[in-house]
């Protein structure tokens, strides 16, 4: 008895999906993977030339290091063909190196053709390579991520009116440059600082759009001052490979003493300002206890959070604390006291030590 077989049309279920869904799937792949995956569907190969994204993937870093001329030539050829076909690329995720002149031409071309999302990563230690100034005049950018470069702001920079998300990782940028970007890019909703060099004092003031802030550092976190940011509801501070503490909050001003950071009182005061928090995560690694390096053990630990009205809307709480350390035990007790009048729907607590 013969087994039933499916026709090619019946087996190609992917082709039955709408174009919007297929394009969305292909956009998530690096370029080489997206091209290879067209064998999965007879329609994918026809959609491939109109994809709005260009992602090179990790393997392209090796190609760049081995033959940068071929790498750049292939990119320029693709960008040129897409531009002439009337389907310019809007989302770009590429590797770059320290050959400034060659890559400046690439960036100038992208900016002049209305790029909307740009992620650029260093293929090696490119500490001398600066992000070209043309990017700071690209008014179509909505998302930008820079990994491994020097980020300097040109004097004539007047802002990126559509920029919503800024991610800076393993990048050299100073306090003044970051403050200037925030002050003249009022539409930024999400700011991510990942292992940035040069930031010592982060000041966020009168920013009415910023909703999410994430700071990750292998070293000591910068001093942070947040004032008049009414939409700021999600803030995360991370140390090493784990969270030091993460919280969802609306924060107000910190005085100069608190800006020094590192003391358990700093954390207690900060938690005391969380008047509208609904989800809170505290996660400290025992091998990163140097976060409280300025703490003097003879100093009394707090018994309660300063603001009795904080955490009233708390719904979710996640804790991972080394409770053998009295500093973290005191924070746990402060939280439990504050949560006595809350309606917690989810509570998870893990301890170390």
TrEMBL record:
PROSITE patterns: FBOX (PS50181). Residues 11-57 form the F-box domain. It comes from the Eukaryota. Coiled coil: none annotated. InterPro entries: At1g61320/At1g61330-like (IPR053772), F-box-like_dom_sf (IPR036047), F-box_dom (IPR001810), LRR_dom_sf (IPR032675), LRR_FXL15/At3g58940/PEG3-like (IPR055411). SUPFAM superfamilies: F-box domain, RNI-like. This is F-box/FBD/LRR-repeat protein. It comes from Canna indica (Indian-shot).
């Amino acid at each position: 008895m013969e087994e039933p077989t499916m026709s090619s049309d019946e087996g190609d279920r992917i082709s039955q999906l709408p174009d919007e869904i297929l394009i969305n799937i292909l956009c998530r792949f690096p370029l080489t993977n997206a091209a290879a995956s067209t064998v999965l569907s007879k329609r994918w190969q026809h959609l491939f030339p109109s994809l709005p994204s260009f992602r090179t993937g990790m393997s392209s870093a090796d190609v760049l290091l081995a033959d940068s001329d071929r790498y750049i030539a292939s990119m320029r050829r693709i960008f040129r063909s897409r531009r002439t076909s009337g389907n310019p690329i809007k989302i770009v995720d590429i590797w770059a190196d320290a050959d400034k002149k060659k890559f400046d031409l690439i960036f100038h071309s992208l900016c002049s053709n209305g790029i909307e999302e740009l992620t650029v990563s260093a293929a090696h230690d490119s500490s001398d390579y600066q992000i070209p100034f043309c990017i700071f005049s690209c008014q179509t950018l909505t998302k930008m991520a820079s990994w491994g470069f020097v980020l300097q702001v040109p004097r004539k920079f007047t802002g990126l009116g559509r920029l919503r998300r800024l991610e800076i990782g393993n990048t050299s940028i100073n306090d003044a440059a970051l403050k200037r970007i925030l002050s003249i890019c009022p539409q930024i909703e999400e700011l991510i600082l990942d292992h940035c060099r040069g930031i010592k004092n982060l000041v966020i003031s009168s920013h009415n759009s910023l909703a999410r802030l994430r700071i990750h550092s292998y070293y000591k976190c910068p001093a942070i001052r947040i004032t008049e940011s009414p939409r700021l509801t999600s803030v995360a501070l991370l140390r090493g490979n784990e969270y030091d503490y993460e919280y969802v909050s609306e924060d107000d001003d910190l005085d100069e003493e608190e800006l020094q950071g590192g003391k358990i009182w700093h954390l207690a005061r900060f938690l005391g300002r969380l008047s509208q928090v609904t989800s809170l995560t505290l996660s400290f690694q025992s091998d990163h206890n140097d976060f409280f390096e300025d703490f003097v053990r003879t100093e009394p630990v707090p018994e309660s959070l300063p603001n009795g009205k904080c955490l009233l809307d708390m719904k979710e709480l996640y804790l991972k604390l080394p409770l053998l350390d009295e500093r973290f035990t005191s924070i746990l007790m402060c939280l439990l006291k504050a949560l006595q009048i809350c309606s917690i729907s989810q509570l998870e607590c893990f301890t170390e030590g």
